[in-house]
Design goal:
The structure is a homodimer of 257-residue chains. Chain A has 12 helices and no strands. Helix content of chain A is 77%, strand content 0%. In chain A, helix 2 packs antiparallel against helix 5, helix 9 runs antiparallel to helix 10 and helix 10 packs antiparallel against helix 11.
């Protein structure tokens, strides 16, 4: 499988892509430093909240008795006049700076939308060349590659959308169907079936299979009965099928004459 | 113990102070909402970091082999071109807003520096009236109060400082000594002994006990040998003591005459 050559055309060099892997590793380190700093900050805030929480619960039970203790009165003044302000400063302290500036610096070397689209199209070409189905690619069962890599629902959807933008309804169908399959198999995703079914039925319609397009539109409307475009499509597909059926009947009658 | 009357003069009313207890309770609730939101945000970021961390470790082991898989190449492009940006938005998303605006609104009803000083002075007057030592007050062993309340090292220091600002070296000494005692007993604090010893020795000197002031200055210099003011004081106190000793000798000789 000569996969390397497949994306030579969309990104300068394999050397440059290797650099990006190291950049990403640095960013992860920087991100983990941020996480540590934020956890530490949050731990201090939680300790304060817990202390105040139990103090407050005690005070509220008997406010006058509580404030009758002059130390409590003094400490309440001190907390409100100075300590809550200190806590505010802690809450507002910025822990993101190191990570964000690191990301900003590295971003100038990042691939662009064009590179992402290029990589997607290279993958689609590879799929055709080696006649691989979407499921084989998505589950990482590519022949001849050492590093198995799974595609998520989002990855499949992204590929489908890129094909769609390219007026390539054949690959749109394959990858929206794959995204849907993975969603049906229980994969967690922020994507919903309605979005996928919308692309799927439209790309099938564009390939002339009105009955199948209608079936998926009906599936979509079961999930979202008020989906405006799907409601329109349902009528249109049914009208087209009816027209086709009549044309077939007429052709049949003519044949019988 | 008529403690209520002791702070009537520094804060409008006990009713107002009771309101502040409820305000504080609301702020704690609002703070806990912030903590929950921030923990949730941080959890998402950690999941991303963990995913990227193991992916990166795998990729770095064999960059060319890894990138030889066209799905990996596509996913790397997608991550760098879109997903890191999404993560950046998440990192920069503001979870503090609700709590901070709540605090800002409530702050207009908060006590001022004057109120805090007033509460402190009321406590010092109470100490004199009932002849209570600092340790009794700080450990909450006040007679006749139901709600035992402990003072921290910081609370004691704060009282001492307020006395100091009032040129009240007697109470400065009592409360700095109490802060030091609690620190020596192992209480956790951000305050250091050097700061406390500095106030303590100065307030003792101001009360005319040069030998004791010298002893505490020596303790301070053991902890921080380069402390400039303490180094100056050491010489000055020793000079004063020497002068006193000579004056006493002279008086003794005169007495013998």
């Amino acid at each position: 499988l000569q996969s390397l050559s497949a994306y030579n055309d969309f990104y300068t060099s394999i050397g440059h892509m290797t650099d990006l892997l190291y950049t990403e590793k640095d960013l992860v380190t920087s991100l983990k430093d941020y996480i540590k700093a934020e956890e530490n900050k949050l731990e201090q805030i939680k300790q304060w909240a817990d202390k105040l929480d139990s103090l407050s619960a005690k005070a509220i039970q008997d406010p006058e008795g509580f404030l009758g203790h002059p130390v409590n009165a003094f400490k309440l003044m001190k907390r409100l006049n100075t300590e809550w302000g200190d806590l505010e400063s802690l809450v507002l302290s910025d822990t993101t700076d190191g990570f964000i500036s690191n990301l900003t610096i590295q971003r100038q070397h990042f691939p662009t939308d064009e590179d992402q689209t290029g990589a997607a199209k290279a993958l689609l070409r590879l799929q055709d060349t080696y006649r691989l189905d979407a499921n084989t690619i998505s589950t990482g069962d590519l022949p001849g590659v050492k590093h198995k890599s799974l595609m998520t629902v989002e990855d499949c959807y992204e590929l489908g959308k890129i094909a769609y933008s390219d007026v390539d309804y054949y690959h749109t169908e394959l990858w929206m169907a794959q995204a849907l399959r993975q969603l049906d198999q229980g994969e967690e995703s922020t994507l919903d079936k309605v979005t996928l079914l919308d692309y799927l039925s439209y790309s099938i319609y564009q390939q002339g299979e009105i009955q199948r397009a209608l079936d998926f539109t009906k599936q979509l409307l079961k999930l979202d009965p008020e989906h405006q475009r799907a409601k329109g499509n349902l009528k249109y597909f049914e009208f087209q099928l009816e027209k086709q059926r009549k044309a077939d009947e007429d052709a049949g009658e003519k044949g019988e004459e």
